[in-house]
């Protein structure tokens, strides 16, 4: 079987990405497998392609209801019959779809996990000829995951009881080694059938901006990236509303999305963003999980997320087409208090709250580190011996490096003298010598390190402790009340065996214009013409523009300048169906552009 030929004919790609062929072969062999691939790494092809080959239906279970329609529309656009059944489908429409599925005409059925545990639906489902069960966003099954949903575990037993012994495929983009092991145990997937392609996103540039005027930064950034799609995440609804109003007044085509809006308004805002009627959407983290928009060029975080997993999943919304994209985190330590408040109000047990607290500590370390940002994330997900990315804001930071060994030793010594039993707030106040921590039963005023940083502010001293934690000189005890402990690295500093250096603080206000900068390999004017043509066709058909062709495919057209159907078919992302639907239209546009350019020259 020539899988590459099927890949090209159905999806328009000449070669498989890392891990895709291996997973597809295991699925076609009827095995249970798990793929751990970064967002935008091509996970969906791993079940979509087998679905076109296997005799029965492919059941795709996904918690992302808002994504199902996009996936179904995209599949139908390339001639692969697919549909979905979830709570958004009205009763009459549902009955019609179920009868249509029973005829065997549908190759992929997308359902929400809640449907599986519905007795009536399961009874109907069990009568179908199911060849493959694909579980997307599989990390929600693990109690160690960042988005654990206990109710989803209930669907595993009935799925295992389906007749016909279908193949299984679990997919996730954000899973630590602990989560991977948990999923393998739950789904009974052998270790040799776990395919990990790495979490690195080479087209994504990570940046952190500290100490900036956030609203001003966002405004300048968006204005300098005009006509590019972007997402701005904020932690609170009022922040979303304020940024939305501010950008609107600047004349920016902007939308907003949060739980305070009606279902109808949220749906409309999401549709406007998907269909390129607006360029930017400001949202809480409730938005984006179900967004398959491929041409998002940047993601800005107005507020720091609570976990590395959430952060990497959200920045993964950018650059899904493989073209250059940016993710900028606007960091202020005070934002961590919002997450601590939510953790305290959580209905989870103490172990759950402890897990969230520990994850928040790792997120704060990321925000304070001076090492490579991508490497920090890869280390978190268990990828060892990775090299610095060379392009994140830390790798490109050219600020002066100063030796702070003496100050580090003072701080570390104070923590030891406090018996390593206190958190950052208390240690900070002792170092600065605040009266409220003196002359009580602790008798901290008797310590030689009390007030040793009396000429510094609480903020400066707190940032020093954050820096020491983020760069491995301190560690946290974990638990509800986290205390600062010396690491082995910190002990070496205290003994004088290791020096500590830090970049001198300064505010960087430079904002690069345009994320996808033209490199001379394609004609930008033609690219813009094709984008307009794509938008016009999409609006006529009532579909999102990226469902016709991605930005990457348009760029490849501009590079290759095809003049025949054979040449057009060789463009990445153009398959047989897309050629028949759009080949003549786009070839005409390219030819006319070349003629016009020749007349002008």
UniProtKB/TrEMBL annotation:
Residues 207-362 form the Helicase C-terminal domain. It holds the Pfam family DEAD. Its cofactor is Mg(2+); Zn(2+). The keyword Glycoprotein does not apply. It catalyses: Couples ATP hydrolysis with the unwinding of duplex DNA by translocating in the 3'-5' direction. CDD domains: DEXHc_RecQ, SF2_C_RecQ. One of its GO terms (cellular component) is replisome. Signal peptide: none annotated. One of its GO terms (molecular function) is metal ion binding. It comes from the Bacteria. Transmembrane segments: none annotated. PROSITE patterns: HELICASE_ATP_BIND_1, HELICASE_CTER, HRDC. One of its GO terms (biological process) is DNA replication. Keywords: ATP-binding, DNA damage, DNA recombination, DNA repair, DNA-binding, Helicase, Hydrolase, Isomerase, Metal-binding, Nucleotide-binding, Zinc. SUPFAM superfamilies: HRDC-like (SSF47819), P-loop containing nucleoside triphosphate hydrolases (SSF52540), Winged helix' DNA-binding domain (SSF46785). Residues 520-600 form the HRDC domain. Its EC number is 5.6.2.4. Residues 24-193 form the Helicase ATP-binding domain. PANTHER family: ATP-DEPENDENT DNA HELICASE Q1 (PTHR13710:SF105), DNA HELICASE RECQ FAMILY MEMBER (PTHR13710). Belongs to the helicase family. RecQ subfamily. NCBIfam families: recQ, recQ_fam. This is DNA helicase RecQ.
């Amino acid at each position: 079987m020539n899988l590459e030929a099927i890949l090209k004919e159905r999806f328009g790609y000449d070669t498989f990405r890392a891990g895709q062929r291996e997973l597809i072969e295991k699925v076609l062999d009827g095995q249970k497998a798990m793929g751990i691939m970064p967002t935008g790494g091509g996970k969906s092809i791993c079940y979509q392609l087998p679905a076109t080959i296997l005799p029965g239906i492919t059941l795709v279970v996904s918690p992302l209801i808002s994504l199902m329609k996009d996936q179904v529309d995209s599949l139908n656009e390339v001639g692969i019959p697919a549909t979905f059944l979830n709570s958004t489908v009205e009763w009459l429409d549902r009955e019609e779809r179920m009868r249509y599925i029973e005829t065997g005409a549908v190759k992929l059925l997308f359902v929400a996990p809640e449907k599986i545990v519905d007795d009536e639906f399961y009874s109907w489902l069990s009568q179908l000829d199911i060849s493959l069960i694909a579980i997307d966003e599989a990390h929600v099954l693990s109690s160690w995951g960042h988005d654990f949903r206990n109710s989803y575990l209930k669907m595993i037993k009935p799925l295992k009881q389906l007749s016909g012994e279908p193949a299984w495929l679990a997919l996730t983009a954000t899973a630590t080694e602990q989560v991977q092991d948990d999923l393998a145990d739950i789904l009974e997937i052998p270790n040799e059938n776990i395919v990990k392609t790495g979490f690195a996103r080479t087209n994504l540039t990570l940046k952190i901006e500290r100490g900036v005027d956030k609203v001003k930064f966002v405004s300048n950034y968006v204005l300098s990236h005009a006509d590019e799609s972007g997402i701005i995440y904020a932690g609170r609804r009022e922040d979303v509303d304020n940024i939305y109003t501010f950008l609107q007044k600047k004349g920016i085509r902007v939308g907003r999305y949060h739980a305070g809006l009606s279902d109808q308004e949220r749906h409309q805002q999401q549709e406007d963003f998907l269909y390129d009627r607006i360029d930017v959407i400001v949202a809480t983290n409730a938005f984006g999980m179900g967004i398959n928009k491929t041409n998002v060029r940047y993601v800005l975080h107005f507020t720091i997320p609570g976990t590395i997993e959430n952060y990497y999943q959200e920045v993964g919304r950018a650059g899904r087409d493989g073209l250059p994209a940016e993710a900028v985190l606007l960091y202020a330590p005070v934002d961590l208090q919002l997450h601590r408040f939510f953790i305290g109000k959580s209905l989870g047990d103490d172990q759950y709250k402890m897990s969230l607290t520990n994850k928040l500590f790792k997120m704060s370390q990321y925000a304070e580190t001076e090492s490579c940002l991508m490497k920090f994330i890869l280390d978190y997900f268990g990828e060892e011996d990775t090299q610095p990315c060379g392009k994140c804001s830390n790798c490109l930071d050219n600020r002066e490096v100063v030796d702070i060994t003496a100050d580090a030793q003072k701080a570390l010594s104070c923590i030891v003298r406090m018996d390593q039993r206190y958190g950052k707030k208390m240690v900070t106040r002792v170092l600065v010598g605040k009266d409220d921590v003196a002359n009580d039963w602790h008798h901290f005023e008797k310590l030689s390190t009390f007030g040793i940083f009396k000429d510094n502010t609480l903020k400066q001293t707190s940032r020093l402790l954050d820096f020491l934690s983020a760069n491995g000189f301190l560690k946290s005890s974990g638990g509800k009340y986290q205390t600062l402990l010396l690491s082995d690295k910190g002990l070496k500093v205290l003994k004088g065996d290791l020096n500590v250096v830090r970049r001198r603080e300064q505010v960087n206000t430079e904002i690069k214009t345009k994320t996808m900068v033209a490199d001379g390999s394609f004609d930008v004017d033609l690219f813009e013409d094709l984008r307009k043509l794509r938008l016009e066709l999409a609006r006529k058909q009532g579909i999102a523009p990226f469902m016709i062709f991605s930005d990457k495919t348009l760029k490849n057209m501009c590079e290759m300048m095809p003049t025949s159907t054979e040449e057009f078919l060789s463009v990445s992302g153009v398959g047989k169906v897309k050629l028949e639907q759009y080949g003549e239209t786009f070839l005409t546009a390219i030819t006319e552009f070349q003629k016009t350019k020749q007349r002008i020259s």
